[in-house]
Amino acid sequence: MGTELLTIGAVANRARVNIQTVRYYERRGLVFPDDHRDSGYRLYSGEAVRKIRFVRNAQDLGFTLNEIMSLLKLQVSKRSQCERVKRKAEGKLADVRAKIGGLKAIEKVLSDLIRTCHAQDATGPCPILRSLELERSAQRSRL
Prior knowledge:
The chain has two domains: 1-76, Orthogonal Bundle (Multidrug-efflux Transporter Regulator, Chain: A, Domain 2), CATH 1.10.1660; 95-143, no CATH class. The protein has seven helices and three strands. The protein has helices spanning 8-15, 19-27, 46-60, 65-75, 82-119, 127-132, 136-142; strands at residues 6-7, 35-36, 42-44. A hairpin with a 5-residue loop joins strand 2 (35-36) and strand 3. The longest helix has 38 residues, at 82-119. The radius of gyration is 24 Å and the shape is elongated.
């Protein structure tokens, strides 16, 4: 008995994504139909559902589609590729930590702006709006 083939709608339903997501991943080369009906409908194996779940989970961790394609290629390689996957995950962790640092700096600037706003009289110009009018380089120097 052969492998069950699924329509794009069934794949989307099982992977908990919309049909447009499946089509997009197909255009990006992440999933491929295994067969076509005479009517032209694409048919996918359960492997497509697994890959889409993998992609979504990797995206939730901050990996880009290009990075995910690289991870998928390593997944089908030898077991010795685990160290390469670990290095990619470490690189992503470093990116996340850098983003957190940037967000903390933004949090501080916004907190400071909000604090100055409370200190201003209602008749004065809004310090938050005034700050947003500054040149970007001046704002970045505050970060």
